[in-house]
Amino acid sequence: MLQDLYQEVILDHSKRPRNFHQMDDATRHVEGYNPLCGDKLKLFVKLDGETVQDISFVGAGCAISTASASLMTESVKGKSRQEAVQMMERFHDLLTSEKPPAPNLGKLAVFSGVREFPARVKCATLAWHTLKSALAGASEVVSTE
Amino acid sequence: MGLALKTWQDQSSRENFPVLNQRVHGKPLVYLDNAATTQKPQMVLDAMNQFYQADNSNIHRGVHELSERSTKHYEDARVKIQHFLNAADWREIVFVRGATEGINLVAYTYGRRHVHAGDEIVISAMEHHSNIVPWQILCEEKQAILRVAPINDRGELLLDKLEELLGPRTKLVSVVHVSNALGTINPVAEIARIAHRRGVPVFIDGAQAVAHMKVDVQQLDCDFYALSGHKMFGPTGIGVLYGKAALLDKMPPYQGGGDMIRSVTFAKTTYNELPYKFEAGTPNIAGTIGLGAAVDYINGIGLDRIEAYERDLLAYATGQLERIPGLRLIGTAREKAGVLSFVLEGVHPHDVGTVLDREGVAVRTGHHCAQPVLEWFGVPATTRASLAFYNTRQDIDALVAGIYKVKELFG
Predict the structure, then answer these.
(1) Is B351 on the interface with A (CB under 8 A)?
(2) Rounded to two decimals, what is the model's pTM?
(3) Owning domain of residue B184
(4) Among A5, A11, A15, whose Cβ lies nearest the Cβ of B354?
(5) Which of A138, B30, B40, B396 is least surrounded by CB atoms within 10 angstroms?
(6) What is the ipTM of this complex?
(7) Is the domain of B296 the same as that of B381?
């Protein structure tokens, strides 16, 4: 169902993305790119020791990729690097595996409908791939391909 | 549009194209992705089946009956293509995998032999990646320069600018006949005249043209012309490179192997004559026969009829889309084929594509392997509806209704 993909929360975050700005004092800054659709985003992360103290992004993408980036920044802000990586894994499972969704996904659970739209999984994971690379310490362009 | 034409058209789509008779997500399929690939009529499927069921054998070598039949069908297809393009000689028709391979063949053979450091190759700003990257690879290898002729806001090639780019170092002009991203029909005969005045040969990428308009390579006077079978109701994996015999003759072979040789010893190999010099290895025999059947199919309808019908349908579709608030057509050339590339204010093409898909409407979204031209228009991606003669006004109405659904959802 189309409504399962484009849930209210997703539409809201795609039209009014949160943490949508550049960050001058970011400690990490990585670009994510989906060559299939041309979606690009720049992710800014401010790490304080092991903690994601602040996170923001800019870029242009479809509703799914913009909402995913927006909800991701809300979800990982203030979390430890390890917690963020665990969340990433749970999110990936949500999109690709048949297992029931993990109970502690919070708002990210709204992306459960993406699984029924395989062509759109990469839209939802672009921001997370980019975050993974940022947390790993790379400053580079990350591609979903 | 006359009633007779409509009846012919309805019957063609209902009876001849099995794929079109299905429901997608519970809705009747509306296939508007013909620039990506066209559907195959039963006649093409039957021809390929018939080959595998009754004649399958390798060509050009066996003395047995099946091999003789296969060879005849394969070579008959070449003659069909020769007449389809009005080439002067069947030896000018080289079978390749598709237009992409045709371009690569010329880049690797003609290009490697004639392009040297400081030489120039001229393309246009609306090229598909397949008519950019092979030349970039060649230019990098040879330290040659790739020049790009600009376009205007409608997506029309600026001929005077193209002419200014031609100089003593220009070794080839390579342009698309019909742009896959914009629909622009380039004045390729005029481009050939301009280039020939300076002694520069011209390559035309005809992948998007041959299913929609009559192409006469002698009239165009192009030196090379490439097409893909699957974009003209034929199978995938087969295409054609046309080249003037005088040029092909002087070119080195593309790939080495069986069938492209006259004699082989460890000391020296002599190459086969045209076109076999460029057809190493066992070719795509079934695909070639399928392509021959596709030519028969197109001829059975007539390209002038197809062209007139599609022009009418394009005008209808353009009018309907232009009425939608917030919709901007990308590519509004005065000479245009059935491609409707557009952006919808506030909605990303991927979201448009997903919603349309749920309405049964198949379109392409993305950069259409033509990133530079979309960048020129300042958009990272578009939604593209592309027409074939089996599309109807009802298909366009379904597209328009789907776009209103998109607006409702994202409004």
Answers:
(1) yes
(2) 0.93
(3) 46-300
(4) A5
(5) A138
(6) 0.87
(7) no
